[in-house]
Specification:
Distance between the termini: 36 Å
Oligomer: single chain
Structural class: alpha/beta
Number of helices: 6
CATH topology of the largest domain: Molybdenum Cofactor Biosythetic Enzyme, Chain A
Largest sheet: 6 strands, mixed
CATH class of the largest domain: Alpha Beta
CATH architecture of the largest domain: 3-Layer(aba) Sandwich
Radius of gyration: 31 Å
């Protein structure tokens, strides 16, 4: 299969990364997700007329009279009071208005004279300082539309109208398959020829960041029979499979052939880019299978540029990769033919390509907050050129 452009690859992936169906989850677990249905208010909020401040509740028509103060209404009170002509009630913020009252005067705008209340607010108007019943939302209305991102404020709003659960676009189940006999777990001593495994840690971190918690991690030895067993198992219960390593054309790179044996339809295998040229993508029904490079820097770059947008599309999330432009601080030459994603640091409209751009180097990536994107037809950039920048989620 031919090598394709970055834009072609992204288009092909997004055509397959369709939103998942919705599911009801507890509101306490919904932060950062997106509503998959309209939320209909089950009651008026507030479900009674309430005071918006501390003061006195009265009939507006009585504002020019001296009023008898009968009782008080505090937030959470369980007994309703009723006022008649010439009467007022002491009231506190959030408390229900007594029956027949329609206005609240601020406590700073009255005086007590011979135990009678005198209003001293020339600007008082009918209904002032009162939150009407249903002012926030009325019973039966759409309180929140489908497709709303559930921010902290959105969660608070839903809790405030009585929701304990909400329908969201279901986060996909993701499997991470690690290939490579040389991988050792962090914390264990390295034997000759071994390297510490980093990909599962960085990928799980980004997955958690966008609300994906259902993650399985598998290991597969460097032989096709073992990889086939592991991939078949991963495909049983997961929506997205991320194979790490083994996607090139070496003697121990089996991902492409094994994926086909497991019924995965190859969409593409190579992209005109650096790093991560041998990126594999395929589908099995509505499941997505990515073959990411084994080098940690390449793997994470490809995840940000291709896998993350696919997952966000499946969950209807807004893009967490922000594209902008910036002035580059020094030259970076390249040959025509490949799009380059350079680890870089963006600050106040300027962007600096970092040292150590090699695909196996994560130290500079740990300092980066963006990629500089140099298109395949370019010869690189020179100091003070304006370049495209992809700001990474923090």
């Amino acid at each position: 299969m031919k090598m394709i452009s970055v834009n072609e690859a992204k288009y092909i992936i997004l055509q397959s990364a369709l939103p998942k169906s919705g599911s009801m989850i507890p509101l306490s677990e919904a932060f950062g997700l997106v509503t998959s249905d309209d939320v209909i208010a089950k009651t008026d909020i507030p479900n009674f007329a309430q005071s918006s401040m501390d003061g006195y509740a009265l009939k507006f028509i009585d504002k020019n009279q001296s009023l008898s103060v009968i009782g008080e209404m505090a937030a959470g009170v369980s007994k309703q009071l009723k006022i008649e002509n010439g009467e007022a009630t002491r009231i506190f913020t959030g408390a229900p208005l007594p029956e027949n009252a329609d206005t609240v005067v601020m406590q700073e705008k009255i005086r007590l004279e011979n135990k009678l209340l005198v209003v001293e607010d020339k600007n008082l108007s009918e209904g002032m300082n009162v939150r009407p019943k249903g002012a926030e939302v009325k019973k039966g209305e759409v309180a929140m539309k489908e497709g709303t991102y559930l921010s902290a404020a959105a969660i608070g709003f839903l809790a405030g109208i009585g929701c304990s659960e909400v329908s969201v676009y279901t986060p996909p189940k993701v499997a991470i398959i690690l290939t490579g006999n040389e991988l050792q777990n962090p914390g264990n001593p390295l034997e000759f020829g071994q390297v510490y495994e980093a990909n599962s840690f960085q990928l799980k971190a980004v997955l958690n960041q966008i609300g994906i918690k259902n993650i399985e991690v598998f290991r597969a030895e460097d032989n096709p029979e073992e990889l086939q067993k592991v991939l078949e198992k991963a495909l049983e219960n997961n929506d997205v499979v991320l194979l790490n390593g083994g996607v090139s054309v070496g003697d121990y790179d089996f991902v492409t052939q094994v994926a086909k044996i497991c019924g995965v339809e190859e969409k593409f295998h190579k992209i005109k880019q650096k790093p991560g040229k041998p990126l594999f993508f395929g589908t099995k029904c509505d499941q997505l299978v990515f073959g990411l490079p084994g080098n940690p820097s390449s793997s994470l770059t490809c995840f940000y540029e291709y896998v993350l947008p696919a997952l966000e599309n499946m969950m209807r999330l807004p893009s967490s990769i922000i594209e902008t432009t910036a002035t580059v601080t020094h030259d970076y030459p390249k040959a025509v033919g490949l799009t380059h994603f350079l680890k870089a640091f963006y600050n106040n409209g300027k962007v600096t390509p970092l040292y150590a751009q090699e695909s196996f180097r994560l130290h500079s990536f740990a300092q980066a907050n963006c990629f500089i994107v140099l298109p395949e037809e370019s010869l690189g950039c020179k100091e003070n050129d304006e370049v495209t920048v992809h700001l990474l989620p923090r």
